[in-house]
Specification:
The protein is α+β, with helices and mostly antiparallel strands and 158 residues long. It is built from 3 helices and 9 strands; from the N terminus they run αββαββαβββββ.
């Protein structure tokens, strides 16, 4: 990796360090081909076999020269439910969760839950479960319509 960071590089690098400091299993991403996975970033090929939390030194090295998208590897300690905004608060109440939550630019919310607890399907409310082998973008990663925004800050996961 060479060259100067792109605009926003410090911001995304600082965010990656924050997630790593909290022990979240993050990985650097690359932007996907248009239309693939809804335009979401995909893990860099070198990061695919890596499923544990990156240390802050690893993150500093990885994000130093390039503002990679930040991806959360789900299925280890954290799973994610992608739901439409109206269902998010109801879902949080039902699960007894209080966040963190990220709002996507397309109106879906990412609800972060303890791994291994997939919810019962709700036919009237479609949701996507991100468990083992999946990943989601974390703020301030830029998506097609803009970055997801945090509605609650990350907390340490034990």
């Amino acid at each position: 990796m060479t060259g100067a960071p792109e605009a926003g590089g410090d911001r995304i690098g600082d965010a990656a360090l924050g997630y790593a400091w909290h022990g979240w299993p993050i990985a650097p991403g690359a932007h996907a081909a248009p239309g693939w996975r809804g335009g979401w970033p995909v893990p860099l090929a070198a990061a695919l076999p890596y499923r544990g939390p990156m240390g802050t030194n690893d993150v500093a090295r990885c994000w130093h020269h390039r503002p990679h998208p930040i991806l959360l590897a789900t299925g280890g300690s954290i799973d994610v439910l992608a739901v439409r905004a109206p269902l998010a608060s109801q879902l949080l109440d039902t699960l007894g969760e209080h966040g963190p939550v990220a709002a996507l630019p397309d109106g879906r919310w990412l609800v972060f839950v303890e791994a291994g607890q997939p919810p019962e399907p709700l036919p009237e409310h479609p949701m996507r479960y991100h468990g083992p082998g999946s990943w989601v973008p974390l703020p301030p990663t830029r998506l097609g319509q803009g970055p997801p925004t945090s509605t609650a800050s990350p907390a340490p996961r034990n």
